[in-house]
Write a structure and sequence with these properties.
With 141 residues, the protein is an alpha/beta fold. 44% of the residues lie in helices and 14% in strands. It contains six helices and three strands. A three-stranded parallel β-sheet has the order 2-1-3. The two termini are 26 Å apart.
């Protein structure tokens, strides 16, 4: 269930980005003139390995110009790897929860509050949060 929610959030991010930058699209209709790579680290279950070059990541690249690079880490090593990346200040762009709380990461300055940008750049997400106010509990502060 957590993996499904993670993938749903990633998909929502890309949908929001495509709507948010509609006015600033390049001549090709993509969000960028050149491909941009976004890294997404996730824990991998040995029973269901993460596959490279799947239809969903190809569609994201074709429709947005964003190359989603999925970094799969064995589930048993995920927390250790994320803590090491956090200590080295080399975090992936998108990641799941690990042994640090969101509040600790915000206090350290590793996560920034983007709530102020929702109205301007992601009005659909803002409307969804207004429709379902219980979602605000997933934010920090």
């Amino acid at each position: 269930m957590k993996k499904f929610i993670s993938l749903l959030l990633v998909a929502g991010l890309f949908l929001a980005m495509s709507g948010a930058f509609a006015e600033g699209e390049s001549a090709s209709g993509l969000l960028t003139d050149e491909p941009v790579t976004i890294t997404y680290m996730r824990a991998e279950n040995s029973a269901i390995p993460v596959q490279d070059d799947v239809a969903s990541t190809r569609q994201i690249l074709e429709r947005t110009g964003i190359n989603l690079e999925i970094i799969a880490v064995p589930g048993s090593d995920y927390n250790t790897r994320m803590m090491a990346l956090y200590a080295a200040n080399d975090m992936p762009d998108i990641f799941g929860l690990f042994n640090m709380t969101k509040r600790e990461m915000v206090e350290d300055g590793a996560l920034l509050c983007l709530t102020d940008l929702l109205e301007e750049y992601a009005p659909n997400i803002m409307a969804y949060y207004e429709q379902y106010p219980e979602l605000w509990r997933t934010t920090v502060g």
